Amino acid sequence: MLEVRGLSAGYGRARVLQDMSFEARPGEVVALLGRNGAGKSTTLKAVMGLLPCWAGEVRFEGRRIDGLQAYEIARMGLGYVPENRRIFTELTVAENLEVGRQPPRPSVPVWGDEALYGLFPALGAMRERRGDRMSGGEQQMLAIARTLAGNPRAVLLDEPSEGLAPLVVSAVAKAIGELRRAGVTVVLAEQSLRFAERVADRVYRVEKGRLS
Length: 212
Fold this sequence. Notes:
Mean pLDDT: 92
Number of helices: 8
Radius of gyration: 16 Å
Order of helices and strands: EEEHEEHEHHHHEHEHEE
Oligomer: single chain
Structural class: alpha/beta
Strand order of the largest sheet: 6-7-8-3-9-10
Strand content: 25-35%
Shape: globular
Largest sheet: 6 strands, mixed
Number of strands: 10
Helix content: 25-40%
């Protein structure tokens, strides 16, 4: 589903990724585990086209996507949930989900409103609540749900458990399990070994911009 080979990227003249290589198979949950600054988030941004790839290649369903714009990659069915969530705080839960909506894709689960509220029941109880009146954990659930509203084939999750209360962490872990059962590939960047081992089929350790 997703294949990264020899990826190098960074910011300005600062190289962060050094020959990063990994893969995620269809319906698999893969974790990139490492401390803050190890290069996990940079990897996801480079895969998603938010950072230019200096070397190497990224393939999504066999097609090279390095060099494409982020919106082009999203239209192909690769979803992305950033670390800082970036929900629209002036919009309600329902309106945020509508912003993320994309047409159904062949052989891909369709995440309509009821399916999303079933995945995150807490959101179903606050459909008309604005984003700026939600807790950090509620915003994280909304960010994931909004990405799923685009009916992606695979999802990149950046630090999905960071700073969340235990009950919310459990809700996110349960949702990742549901995605696996639905056949959606998940790649997550994570600092918590406990959470990574809880949700992932395979865990890659990232240190100084490469796998160790």
